[in-house]
Amino acid sequence: MSKQRKAVALISGGLDSMLATRVVQEQGIHVEGINFFTGFCVEGHTHAIRRQERAKPKRNNALWVAEQLGIRLHIVDIVDEYKDVLLNPRHGYGKNLNPCLDCKVFMVGKAHAWMREHDFDFIVTGEVVGQRPMSQRSATMPLVAEESGVGDRLLRPLCAQRLAETLPEREGWIDRDRLHDFSGRSRKPQVALAAELGIEDYAQPAGGCCFLTDASYSAKLADLWRARGNREYDLDDIMLLKVGRHLRPRAHFKLVIAREEGEVKFLQGYRRQFTHLLPTSHPGPLALLDGRADVDDLELAARIVARFSQGRDADKVRVEVVPTGGEAQTLEVAPLATDAIPSGWYV
Amino acid sequence: MSRHELDCRRLLCPMPVIRTQNRVAGLAPGDELAVTCTDPGAAKDIPAWCRINGHELLGIEHGDDELVVTVRVGASEDG
């Protein structure tokens, strides 16, 4: 009896990796999933934070996909290791601060290490030639296999027929004729294959799965680095960039102002780490102050926060200001007029 | 068999799942782990993780601002 071959599949939670895995399962391969958490994943966090999202069913799509496929899923925290990928991408950035090609090389490399450690035979991804401008071009796909060190043990079932034969095909573990030749950005072949495989429910691809591809998020991250004079960050930093309005009225401080109740609740968790402001005479948002602020700065911050309270048209709004480890004080301020907030303050 | 606790307060999905997974990897089959979370998403994600990885969900207790998900470690060799 031939040996049961085993593959580890990179599972994002989207349709492509779901299909790629299913195609390989159909050929009798034992598949387990691996999912990497960089801290920049759209999945999960924003759904947890924003109250308006709460009416929608909350689920982690990678876990959900694994369950639909009947495979185990290993979620790996790569927040710290990922810094080097983001800060020093050998292949540069995409349109925003997205180091897609380096990211793919890194993740496939991590999956390769996992594969060897667990005695698996090859790696599966849902990549499609020509689908992504940076990481999924015909020129870069061999580069991912080479630089990650996985070589010909990387199988892309959705476009394998357009690529050089891999080890699993050569060895007869996988029948190349039952793989696919998808290419380009059209989703039609995937949708058709999903229907053929009886997959009716799947996450709709919408704007990618990584905040680094988002222009607004990338601008906030660049602003953070600029203000600090270095490119260090931790998980709290990159989480806070996903939440609230960010205004930088002065180079040395910015405000993160909650937009709704879910964000208020989330920002409350950071009150010990940041000076925070809260209108007390009128309903209004919680705001965190990131940076250094003197007396004048605190007054300006309070006037801005008052502007976003229900007292925005009042003559005076009382705002409680609580410094980290210091004593709370209440400032009575005139809310800043809307047209007194330069658009350049919005990060 | 022993009972363990894990504090995942203020962590957002998928961190509570990752912390649970990593903690369970060091426990013995039959051990119980009570995970305290503030992200309501954990009430769906940890049970899903249990189902696909062969662990048993013993229950979810909902409090005002947090929930406790209790898991019994399955017989599989790792998390």
Would you identify the regions of chain B where 5 or more consecutive residues have pLDDT less than 50?
A: none
**Greatest chain-chain contact:** A-B, 28 and 22 residues
Report on the biggest sheet of chain B: 4 strands, mixed
| Poorly predicted segments of chain A | none
Look at the structure and name the CATH superfamily of the largest domain in chain A: HUPs
**CATH architecture term of the largest domain in chain A:** 3-Layer(aba) Sandwich
- How far apart the termini of chain B lie comes to 17 Å
Oligomer kind: heterodimer
Tally the structural domains of chain A. Answer: 2
Which sequence of SSEs, written as H and E, runs from N to C of chain A?
EHEHHEHHEHEHHHHEEHEEHEE
Query: Beta fraction of the residues of chain A?
Result: 15-25%
CATH topology of the domain at 12-31 and 40-69 in chain B: Translation Initiation Factor IF3
CATH architecture of the domain at 12-31 and 40-69 in chain B: 2-Layer Sandwich
How does this structure look, described?
The complex is a heterodimer of chains A (347) and B (79). Chain A is α/β, with parallel strands linked by helices. Chain A folds into 2 domains: 6-211, HUPs (Rossmann fold); 243-345, no CATH class. Chain A is built from 12 helices and 11 strands. Chain A has a 6-stranded antiparallel beta sheet with strand order 6-7-9-8-10-11, with helices on one face. Chain A has a 5-stranded parallel beta sheet with strand order 3-2-1-4-5, sandwiched between helices. In chain A, a hairpin with a 2-residue loop joins strand 6 (245-250) and strand 7 (253-257). Chain A starts with 5 loop residues before the first strand and ends in a 14-residue tail after the last strand. With 79 residues, chain B is of the alpha+beta class. Chain B has a domain at 12-31 and 40-69: TusA-like domain (Translation Initiation Factor IF3), CATH 3.30.110. Chain B is built from 2 helices and 4 strands; from the N terminus they run E-H-E-H-E-E. In chain B, strands 1-2-4-3 form a 4-stranded mixed beta sheet, with helices on one face. In chain B, helix 1 (15-24) packs parallel to helix 2. Chain B is globular and about 30 Å long. Classes of the chains: A alpha/beta (347), B alpha+beta (79).
